[in-house]
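REQUEST FORM: STRUCTURE PREDICTION
Request ID: SP-0412
Submitted by: Lab K.M.
Chain count: 1
Length (residues): 381
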Amino acid sequence: MLERILKLEEIKEDSLFLWGSRQTGKSTLLKALFPDAKLYDLLKTDVRTSLMLRPSLLREECEMLDEGTLVIIDEVQKVPALLDEVHWLIENKGIRFILSGSSARKLKRSGANLLGGRALRRTLFPLVSAEIPNFDINRAINHGMLPRHYLSENSTQRINAYIGDYLQQEIVEEAVVRRLESFTRFLRVAALSNSEIVNYTNIAQDCGVSSKTVKEYFTILEETMLGFFLPAYTRVVKRRVIQSPKFYYFDVAIPNHLLTMKSLQPGTDIYGHALEHLIIQELRAYLSYRNLYKKFSFWHTLDNKYEVDAVIGDAEVAIEVKSSHAVSSGDTKGLKAFSEEYPNAKLILVSLDSSPRKLNNVEVWPAQQFLKQLWMDKMIF
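STATUS: Completed
RESULT:
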């Protein structure tokens, strides 16, 4: 079994929500870290039904436990009413809880008790490079980083089943859209816009729905953890900048699957987009796992002349991703423009070069080595 970086050590003092997309390995991680915890698995029909009919059963059973006992409720969003009982047990019995799930949407929309700060929030992301022995970037781009997908020789079939399960369970069961065919079409159009600045009007035209509906669809993807927005870095020094966010699916393989792409190979534009997506995915996980409460954004000038793929903190680090095997001075123009605005920024270009080097005050790092240095805490700060 792969060893995950997230250890959830906060549970020694606090209860917590553990969120993560389906099949990121939440249940496996919790069983590995806390084998002696009392577990309520709401994927089991009998367990879910009994607690749905009588949520007080949770309190009645947990009142028999010693103070400080750890209780895990897996897929907690399936029975939102349990959170009132959890609240009472935390306050009156000192029970610690880990409440895991793949979607906060149902809890938020139902007005469920989110415990008013009594539980911390952590997120389990897909695998990261540091968790995989002999990590292979090409495999990651083509298979994705969900554990079952990366390790499988039949990743295409698994991803196809994954998307089907998502539509069936998250969309149909929760009845969050009226026209499933429109939402399915939106998923593919959103894949075309993956890693691009979001233009709701253009996407709405391509989907045949209103801009308001498209915004709601993107909210669904966020709340069911199938995608995320990367905000624009908007502080202006000289050049006017884009204000709209970029959108990314939560895993690098999802958009290519939705677009029925075959194996992606270095040297193509689509491979370059996927490499950028993978680096953004790793940076997002790194900042979360290391509890680095830094802004994470991108920078794009309004005249479309210059762009930087990732900005960490308040212009502390700027990162550009290129899939070239031999980057040149022209590949650093976005970073150089950013440096003119923010001269103290550390400038990094991630590429497929064979060796690290310095180019125009920019650190050029092969992607594999960049990721290794990142997770050794030697790259960003």
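NOTES: The chain has a mean pLDDT of 91.
Reviewed by: T.R.
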